[in-house]
Amino acid sequence: MAKEHILAVDDEEDILALLEHHLSREGYTVTCVETGEEALKATRAERPDLMVLDLLLPGVDGLEVCRRLKADPDTASIPIVMLTAKGEEADIVAGLELGADDYITKPFSPRVLTARVRAVLRRHAQPPADEETPLKLHGLLIHPGRHEVTVPEGKIELTHTEFRMLYFLAGRPGWVFTRYQIIDAVRGEDYPVTDRSVDFHVATLRKKLGKYGDCIETVRGVGYRFKE
Known about the structure:
Helix content: 40-55%
Strand order of the largest sheet: 2-1-3-4-5
Order of helices and strands: EHEHEHEHEHEEEEHEHHEE
Number of domains: 2
CATH superfamily of the largest domain: Response regulator
Distance between the termini: 27 Å
Shape: elongated
Strand content: 15-25%
């Protein structure tokens, strides 16, 4: 059975060879290109199921490729896994803000790469819960209609902002969200959420969740995610 088509974009031949080798071994069909211009052209010629995109490309860089694809309704839904050099935290945040799904830092483990690709494809195959769907994850039952969070030990009382933050993160387990994405999701007229207060709310939320608090993971320099 044929697997998904992956477009790998990197200006280093050895990296492309590594990507093609390991992703092909997993059964994926892999197309490799070396520039941002080629990536955009290849995407429109044959829409891939996922793109592994280096950020440091000559000419049209990876962030611009991501920006153009996410701005086009025909390509906006293509999952993007960014490849970055260590220390490019600002670029990672920018890519996630533009709509990229995940990132991998260079040098990377091929096993981590294939696991991340599988996870992103799996998440895209499962649409996020709507605002009325209860979520049951890692012992937590999060019920939006009742505005309740229950665990085997009983109910956990949360503020409106804490509840919305938890429900937002849990609705996409494994996805990394920046602080500003969290702000956009939970901002309400009743409470002015800021980037600094996100950290405070997460700390309070973890404390209230007790032993379940480690379900909310910190992604250093980027933001937070709910454990997959």
